[in-house]
Structures are given as structure tokens and as C-alpha cells.
Amino acid sequence: MGMETTLNTFKSFYLLPEYVGRLESRIAPLNKRADKLGLTRIQMVVTDDYIQVIDSQAKKFRVNLLSAPVVISGWRVVGVISILDNGEALLTGNVPEEYRNHANTCDHCGQNRARKVTVLLQDGEGNLKQVGRACLKDFTDTTNPEKLADWYQDILEIEIEDDEGSEFEGGGTRVTHFDTLRVLAVAAAVIRIDSRYVPTSAVNDSVPSISTAYKVRSIVEGKGTFEVTEEDSSKASRVIVWGRGKTGESGYLGNVAAALAGPVLEYRTFGIAVSAVAAYYRSEREAADDIRRAENPSVHFGTVGRRESFRLKPVFRTVTENDYGYKTVLAFVDTAGNRATWFASGIVDSPEVDSEGFATCKATVKSHGEYKGELQTIISRVKF
Ligand SMILES: [Zn+2]
User: Do 213 and 354 reside in the same domain of the chain?
Assistant: First the structure.
């Protein structure tokens, strides 16, 4: 291959030493597959970093798993999008949220059909390409590309249970129940400090990160003190009221309601309870957006036929194919929240954005239209 192999941390666990062996045996068959596929083996590193188990002498050590990038014909696998039986999209690896909206797309053949798995690839310039698993063979000259993608997905899904709820050797009691309010307040604090919520599925191989739920659990299980503010606690109370109000709903929200129903959480409801904080924030934002839209509805901007400068935030992108080739639809809002759409020919990437999520462009205002009851400005010949 001749290429320098860089290893990145793609998973991180805090584990009791006696569970390290279990993780090793979880990795062994994956490494056997790596050998067959010509991939670099996963490396496991047990670090000195530890957390103390509450009411016990036991320590859990941080164990990092490292892997080399999986490359298919010059394209690095950055994530996998799977459609679950209930129709929801599962994003594994570093897949932007927006892919939930076009989990079925294949940028290679452009054909929309029921697909179970698509793979997100990135080239050296950062361009992303979503390719159906079945199209990988056609897309590349690599042997067994779909097996490479499967392997990548499998390593991201490595989980290790060290919390079976039984007492562990060495005495001491395990925490099996957590105070709901405390957990949510810590979750609010962690999200505040990190300025983001990291779902368990978002851990990727270029940025070593730990999911928010994992951090929260380490904190509530740990011996040290961790300050939550009054604001964190009051947010936690609001999340509980909000979540319990979802009783009777189906799917995710119903699960949230069930998890938050009682004063304590169990291991199995811990992750969903932490995610409820992020879901509550999202619903607050959406409600605020609805009010803003109602008070300040989208209006047309620019002058039809004129080429002007705009600051736009990309909010949606999808690629389709017809007899004439590929088409990309990109939707934006301007700084006042007014909607704009660009129907671009070919496959066009989302622009790079600044810290506020905006990019400056020159565009020709093609027409002033309407979509789903909202006024929108159609732009063309957009140059970021
Ligand atoms: Zn395809």
C-alpha cells in the first residue's frame, strides 16, 4: 500500500480490569476478518486514566480502541446509514444528521429504491458520496468493498457490557439505580460544558469522543464531586415534565416517557434518559422557530433577475437523478430566517460555513415562489 497508516481512537470505554479480557475476545474475530480483508488490525490501549466505582475500592480504567481508516478506491468510509425495520435511519460513524432525510439515496446510480444500507464515503478534498451497499462493487475496483464497509460498521458497534447488575468481586455494592433528576441535571451540565450532545452512535474515527451518556454515567458512578448549576437542575425538572407528558406516544417519545416515569433510572433506560435532554432542547428550539415563523414569516428577498450577495445557512440537501443527469436541491435560510432554494445541476456539496452556520455567496434571484405555505426565494448560479 505504501501509505503511512495513522491509527485513530474510534471507541473509548471505562472498564473494570476484569472486563478487559471480554473486550479482547470481542475484538479477536474482527481482527481475524481484518487480516483476511487486508485491513489494519484494531489496537487496544489500556490507559492510566480511571474512574473510581462508587462505594468501592474498584477502579474502571479507560480503554481506547484504535483503527486505521478503511479506504475504498481512494474514498474513506466515514459512516454507514442503515434503515431499521421500523423505517427509521440508524447513523453509524460520522454521518451528518441531515442524512436521516435521504437515507435511501445512492449518489452512484442515483436510483431511489428500498435500500437497507448505504455507505458514506469521503475523498481527500472532503467531498462526501453516499453509495448503496449493493452499488459499492460497481463503484470501485476494490475487492469485496461491501465487506470492508460491513467490517467498519461492526467495529463501530463494539459494545461491552460490564454492568450486568450482579455484584462484582472485591465487595462493595454496584449502583444499579440512579436518581432521575440527578442524572438529567448532570446531562444538562455536560451538554452545557461540551456545547453539544454526542449520541452513542456519533463516535467516529477522526475525533476521539465519548458519548454524552457515557460521560454522564461516569460522573454519576464516580466518587468525586461534580457541580451542577441551579439552571441545570431546573432544566432537568422541565425535561421530566416534558418527557412524562409524552406518555402514550409511540416510538422514541413513548420510550422517553417510560424511562422518565419513575424517580429512578436503571442501566437499560439510562441512555434514553440522557438523550431526552437533547430531545427536549430540540423541541424547545422547534417551538421557538414556529413562533418566530408565525410572528415573522418567511418573506421574499432580493430582486428577481438581479445578481446579489447573500449570507445563507444550508438547512437541507438532496441529490436526485433523472434522464438528464444528477440534480442537487439545496435549501437555505438567510439571516432573517427567510427561505431560499437552489435547484443545481450535477452533484453539489453543501458550502463550508462559519461558526454561525452561514456562508456568503453570490447568486441570481430567479423567482419569488412559495412552498408548503411558506414564501421562498428561488436562486440560481450560486457561487460560494
Ligand atoms: Zn446505487
Answer: no
- Share in percent of the chain as helix, strand, coil (round to 5): 35, 30, 35
Residue appearing with cell numbers 460555513: 353
C-alpha cell at 215: 460521560
Q: Per-residue confidence at 209, pLDDT binned at 50, 70, 90?
A: low
User: Among positive and negative, which fits the CA dihedral 38, 159, 56, 228?
Assistant: positive
Predicted TM-score of the model (pTM): 0.46
Indicate the residue among 295, 320, 350 that finishes a domain.
Answer: 295
- 70-120, pLDDT tens digit by residue? 999 899 999 999 888 777 888 888 888 888 888 888 999 988 777 789 999
Residue 165: inside a domain:
no
Average pLDDT of span 52-60 = 68
Q: With contact defined as beta carbons under 8 Å apart, do 101 and 57 qualify?
A: no
Cα 109 to averaged position of ligand 1 atoms, centre (Å): 4
Alpha carbon of 342 to ligand 1 centroid (Å): 24
Distance in Å, CA 134 to ligand 1 centroid = 7
Is there a single domain that holds both residue 103 and residue 179?
A: no
Cα–ligand 1 centroid distance for 119 (angstroms): 10
Please tell me the distance between residue 251's alpha carbon and the centre of ligand 1 in angstroms: 30
User: pLDDT by residue (tens digit) across 371-380?
Assistant: 877 899 999 9
Q: Which residues contact 153 (CB under 8 A, 6 or more apart)?
A: 80, 82, 92, 93, 117
Q: What's the start-to-end Cα distance of the chain, in Å?
A: 36
Number of structural domains (the chain) is 3
- Kindly give the distance from the C-alpha atom of residue 36 to the centroid of ligand 1, in angstroms, as a whole number: 26
